[in-house]
Amino acid sequence: MQLKFYFDNKGRIFSSGRGKAKPARTYPVKLARSGTRINIHLPKRVSEFALLSLMNHVRSMKHFDFMLTSELKVLATKRYASVEPFCLDLGLACLRLFEQKEPNGLNSIVTVWDKTELETAALPFDMLNLSQQRLIHLDTPSALASLPEKLTQNAALYRFSAERQLVLIKLPRTVTPDTSELVSQPQLEDIIDERYIRWLSICGHTTLAVGTPLCQQGEVVWQLRGQETAEKHPFIRLLLYPLTSPYERPNNYRLITITYLTDIKSFIL
Q1: With contact defined as beta carbons under 8 Å apart, do 268 and 175 qualify?
Q2: Beta-carbon neighbour count of residue 97 at 10 Å?
Q3: Were both Cys, which of 14, 29, 33, 252 would link to 3 (CB 3.0–4.6 Å)?
Protein backbone atom coordinates (compact mmCIF):
# COMPACT_ATOMS: atom_id res chain seq x y z
CA MET A 1 0.00 0.00 0.00
CA GLN A 2 1.26 3.44 -0.93
CA LEU A 3 0.86 6.18 1.66
CA LYS A 4 0.51 9.73 0.38
CA PHE A 5 0.90 13.04 2.15
CA TYR A 6 0.36 16.58 0.90
CA PHE A 7 1.62 19.89 2.26
CA ASP A 8 0.03 23.26 1.53
CA ASN A 9 1.82 26.60 1.50
CA LYS A 10 0.82 27.27 5.11
CA GLY A 11 2.72 24.16 6.17
CA ARG A 12 -0.37 22.07 6.93
CA ILE A 13 -0.22 18.32 6.25
CA PHE A 14 -2.96 16.23 4.60
CA SER A 15 -3.01 12.48 4.04
CA SER A 16 -4.68 10.49 1.31
CA GLY A 17 -5.09 6.72 1.54
CA ARG A 18 -5.90 4.24 -1.19
CA GLY A 19 -9.18 4.93 -2.93
CA LYS A 20 -9.43 8.53 -1.73
CA ALA A 21 -9.62 11.44 -4.11
CA LYS A 22 -6.51 13.45 -4.68
CA PRO A 23 -6.42 16.79 -2.87
CA ALA A 24 -6.85 20.09 -4.66
CA ARG A 25 -4.03 21.38 -6.83
CA THR A 26 -3.38 24.06 -4.22
CA TYR A 27 -1.40 21.47 -2.25
CA PRO A 28 2.02 21.96 -3.85
CA VAL A 29 4.18 19.41 -2.03
CA LYS A 30 3.45 15.73 -2.62
CA LEU A 31 5.03 12.81 -0.74
CA ALA A 32 4.39 9.15 -1.55
CA ARG A 33 5.79 6.34 0.56
CA SER A 34 6.10 2.80 -0.77
CA GLY A 35 8.19 0.34 1.20
CA THR A 36 11.50 2.01 1.98
CA ARG A 37 11.25 4.48 -0.92
CA ILE A 38 9.97 8.03 -0.42
CA ASN A 39 9.06 9.95 -3.59
CA ILE A 40 8.64 13.71 -3.26
CA HIS A 41 7.56 16.24 -5.86
CA LEU A 42 8.05 20.01 -5.57
CA PRO A 43 6.54 22.45 -8.11
CA LYS A 44 8.00 25.72 -9.36
CA ARG A 45 6.21 27.69 -6.66
CA VAL A 46 6.28 26.59 -3.04
CA SER A 47 6.57 28.46 0.26
CA GLU A 48 9.26 28.09 2.90
CA PHE A 49 6.46 27.05 5.30
CA ALA A 50 5.70 24.00 3.14
CA LEU A 51 9.38 23.04 2.90
CA LEU A 52 9.86 23.47 6.65
CA SER A 53 6.82 21.29 7.35
CA LEU A 54 8.13 18.64 4.94
CA MET A 55 11.54 18.67 6.62
CA ASN A 56 10.02 18.22 10.08
CA HIS A 57 7.85 15.39 8.75
CA VAL A 58 10.65 13.33 7.20
CA ARG A 59 13.51 13.97 9.65
CA SER A 60 12.73 10.85 11.71
CA MET A 61 12.71 8.57 8.63
CA LYS A 62 16.18 7.19 9.19
CA HIS A 63 16.03 4.05 7.04
CA PHE A 64 14.46 5.31 3.84
CA ASP A 65 15.65 6.18 0.36
CA PHE A 66 14.48 9.58 -0.96
CA MET A 67 13.81 10.48 -4.58
CA LEU A 68 13.21 14.20 -4.97
CA THR A 69 11.73 15.60 -8.17
CA SER A 70 11.99 19.36 -8.00
CA GLU A 71 11.02 22.21 -10.30
CA LEU A 72 12.33 24.77 -7.80
CA LYS A 73 15.25 26.93 -8.89
CA VAL A 74 16.78 26.68 -5.42
CA LEU A 75 16.62 22.87 -5.16
CA ALA A 76 17.67 20.33 -7.79
CA THR A 77 16.18 16.92 -8.56
CA LYS A 78 18.25 14.35 -6.70
CA ARG A 79 18.25 10.93 -5.04
CA TYR A 80 19.27 10.71 -1.37
CA ALA A 81 20.38 7.51 0.36
CA SER A 82 19.71 8.98 3.82
CA VAL A 83 17.54 11.66 5.38
CA GLU A 84 20.23 13.96 6.82
CA PRO A 85 21.63 15.38 3.53
CA PHE A 86 18.08 15.64 2.23
CA CYS A 87 17.05 17.72 5.25
CA LEU A 88 20.14 19.92 4.88
CA ASP A 89 19.25 20.68 1.25
CA LEU A 90 15.61 21.31 2.23
CA GLY A 91 16.71 23.69 4.96
CA LEU A 92 19.02 25.57 2.60
CA ALA A 93 16.25 25.86 0.00
CA CYS A 94 13.88 27.11 2.69
CA LEU A 95 16.45 29.70 3.72
CA ARG A 96 16.94 30.88 0.14
CA LEU A 97 13.21 31.26 -0.44
CA PHE A 98 12.89 33.31 2.74
CA GLU A 99 15.89 35.52 1.98
CA GLN A 100 14.65 36.21 -1.55
CA LYS A 101 11.67 37.96 0.03
CA GLU A 102 13.87 39.78 2.56
CA PRO A 103 16.52 41.49 0.41
CA ASN A 104 17.33 44.16 3.00
CA GLY A 105 20.07 42.69 5.11
CA LEU A 106 19.67 38.89 5.13
CA ASN A 107 21.97 36.80 2.95
CA SER A 108 23.55 33.52 4.01
CA ILE A 109 24.39 29.89 3.37
CA VAL A 110 24.30 26.91 5.75
CA THR A 111 26.78 24.03 5.70
CA VAL A 112 27.94 21.29 8.05
CA TRP A 113 30.40 22.73 10.59
CA ASP A 114 33.94 21.81 9.54
CA LYS A 115 36.34 22.58 12.39
CA THR A 116 39.45 21.98 10.28
CA GLU A 117 38.34 24.39 7.58
CA LEU A 118 37.10 27.06 10.00
CA GLU A 119 40.20 27.05 12.21
CA THR A 120 41.88 29.24 9.59
CA ALA A 121 39.16 31.90 9.93
CA ALA A 122 40.50 33.21 13.28
CA LEU A 123 37.26 32.39 15.09
CA PRO A 124 36.85 32.73 18.87
CA PHE A 125 37.89 29.89 21.14
CA ASP A 126 34.36 29.18 22.37
CA MET A 127 32.94 28.74 18.86
CA LEU A 128 35.59 26.24 17.81
CA ASN A 129 35.45 24.23 21.02
CA LEU A 130 31.70 24.25 21.59
CA SER A 131 31.22 22.62 18.20
CA GLN A 132 33.22 19.60 19.44
CA GLN A 133 30.96 18.84 22.41
CA ARG A 134 29.38 15.37 22.17
CA LEU A 135 26.02 15.66 23.89
CA ILE A 136 23.48 14.06 21.59
CA HIS A 137 23.02 10.87 23.66
CA LEU A 138 22.61 12.62 27.02
CA ASP A 139 19.34 13.60 28.63
CA THR A 140 18.67 17.34 28.67
CA PRO A 141 19.78 18.13 32.26
CA SER A 142 23.01 16.12 31.87
CA ALA A 143 23.79 17.75 28.53
CA LEU A 144 23.35 21.26 29.91
CA ALA A 145 25.32 20.49 33.08
CA SER A 146 28.26 19.12 31.08
CA LEU A 147 28.78 22.34 29.11
CA PRO A 148 31.68 24.46 30.43
CA GLU A 149 30.42 27.94 31.34
CA LYS A 150 33.30 29.65 29.55
CA LEU A 151 32.09 28.16 26.26
CA THR A 152 28.51 29.45 26.59
CA GLN A 153 28.96 33.04 27.82
CA ASN A 154 28.56 34.40 24.30
CA ALA A 155 25.94 31.84 23.27
CA ALA A 156 22.16 32.01 23.02
CA LEU A 157 20.13 29.07 24.32
CA TYR A 158 16.69 28.14 22.99
CA ARG A 159 14.06 25.47 23.45
CA PHE A 160 11.41 24.33 20.98
CA SER A 161 7.79 24.84 21.99
CA ALA A 162 5.04 22.29 21.37
CA GLU A 163 4.19 24.37 18.26
CA ARG A 164 7.83 24.04 17.13
CA GLN A 165 8.55 27.71 17.77
CA LEU A 166 11.89 28.87 19.14
CA VAL A 167 11.67 30.11 22.73
CA LEU A 168 14.61 32.07 24.11
CA ILE A 169 16.07 30.82 27.40
CA LYS A 170 19.41 32.64 27.59
CA LEU A 171 20.91 35.68 25.87
CA PRO A 172 24.57 36.16 25.00
CA ARG A 173 26.19 38.37 27.62
CA THR A 174 26.91 41.08 25.04
CA VAL A 175 23.31 41.45 23.83
CA THR A 176 20.97 44.16 25.15
CA PRO A 177 18.82 43.91 27.23
CA ASP A 178 20.92 42.20 29.86
CA THR A 179 19.72 38.78 31.00
CA SER A 180 19.36 40.00 34.59
CA GLU A 181 16.75 42.54 33.49
CA LEU A 182 14.54 39.96 31.79
CA VAL A 183 11.82 37.71 33.11
CA SER A 184 12.61 34.02 33.48
CA GLN A 185 11.14 33.34 30.03
CA PRO A 186 12.37 36.22 27.81
CA GLN A 187 10.44 36.78 24.60
CA LEU A 188 12.35 36.94 21.34
CA GLU A 189 9.81 39.48 20.05
CA ASP A 190 10.98 41.96 22.69
CA ILE A 191 14.57 41.81 21.45
CA ILE A 192 14.54 41.32 17.67
CA ASP A 193 12.01 41.69 14.87
CA GLU A 194 9.80 38.93 13.51
CA ARG A 195 11.68 38.37 10.26
CA TYR A 196 14.96 37.80 12.12
CA ILE A 197 13.19 35.27 14.37
CA ARG A 198 11.81 33.48 11.33
CA TRP A 199 15.26 33.46 9.72
CA LEU A 200 16.82 32.03 12.86
CA SER A 201 14.02 29.49 13.27
CA ILE A 202 14.60 28.03 9.79
CA CYS A 203 18.24 27.41 10.69
CA GLY A 204 17.27 25.97 14.07
CA HIS A 205 14.87 23.46 12.55
CA THR A 206 17.47 22.50 9.96
CA THR A 207 19.94 21.80 12.77
CA LEU A 208 17.30 19.72 14.54
CA ALA A 209 16.67 17.68 11.38
CA VAL A 210 20.31 17.15 10.39
CA GLY A 211 21.49 16.33 13.92
CA THR A 212 25.01 17.73 13.61
CA PRO A 213 26.59 21.16 14.23
CA LEU A 214 25.94 23.54 11.35
CA CYS A 215 27.64 26.71 10.16
CA GLN A 216 25.73 29.70 8.80
CA GLN A 217 27.74 32.40 7.02
CA GLY A 218 26.73 35.57 5.22
CA GLU A 219 25.74 39.17 5.88
CA VAL A 220 23.28 40.63 8.35
CA VAL A 221 22.09 44.13 9.24
CA TRP A 222 22.43 44.67 12.99
CA GLN A 223 22.28 47.69 15.29
CA LEU A 224 25.01 47.42 17.91
CA ARG A 225 24.79 48.88 21.38
CA GLY A 226 25.56 52.61 21.25
CA GLN A 227 24.91 52.93 17.51
CA GLU A 228 22.11 55.12 16.16
CA THR A 229 21.57 53.09 13.01
CA ALA A 230 21.89 49.48 11.91
CA GLU A 231 24.76 48.50 9.64
CA LYS A 232 25.56 45.49 7.46
CA HIS A 233 28.20 43.09 8.81
CA PRO A 234 29.67 39.76 7.69
CA PHE A 235 28.86 37.06 10.23
CA ILE A 236 29.37 33.41 11.07
CA ARG A 237 27.00 31.40 13.28
CA LEU A 238 27.50 28.07 15.00
CA LEU A 239 24.26 26.11 15.39
CA LEU A 240 24.72 23.27 17.84
CA TYR A 241 22.35 20.34 17.44
CA PRO A 242 19.65 19.83 20.08
CA LEU A 243 21.12 19.17 23.52
CA THR A 244 19.08 16.11 24.38
CA SER A 245 18.61 12.46 23.60
CA PRO A 246 16.76 11.79 20.32
CA TYR A 247 14.30 9.73 22.36
CA GLU A 248 12.94 12.77 24.20
CA ARG A 249 10.05 14.90 22.99
CA PRO A 250 10.94 17.83 20.69
CA ASN A 251 9.84 20.39 23.30
CA ASN A 252 12.67 19.09 25.51
CA TYR A 253 15.26 19.91 22.85
CA ARG A 254 17.71 22.72 23.46
CA LEU A 255 19.46 24.61 20.67
CA ILE A 256 22.65 26.63 21.19
CA THR A 257 23.86 29.31 18.80
CA ILE A 258 26.90 31.60 18.77
CA THR A 259 26.76 34.43 16.23
CA TYR A 260 29.95 36.38 15.56
CA LEU A 261 30.42 39.54 13.48
CA THR A 262 33.81 38.89 11.94
CA ASP A 263 34.61 42.46 10.87
CA ILE A 264 34.25 44.04 14.32
CA LYS A 265 34.79 40.91 16.45
CA SER A 266 31.48 41.19 18.30
CA PHE A 267 28.82 38.66 19.37
CA ILE A 268 25.11 39.13 18.63
CA LEU A 269 21.93 37.07 18.99
Answers
A1: yes
A2: 22
A3: 33
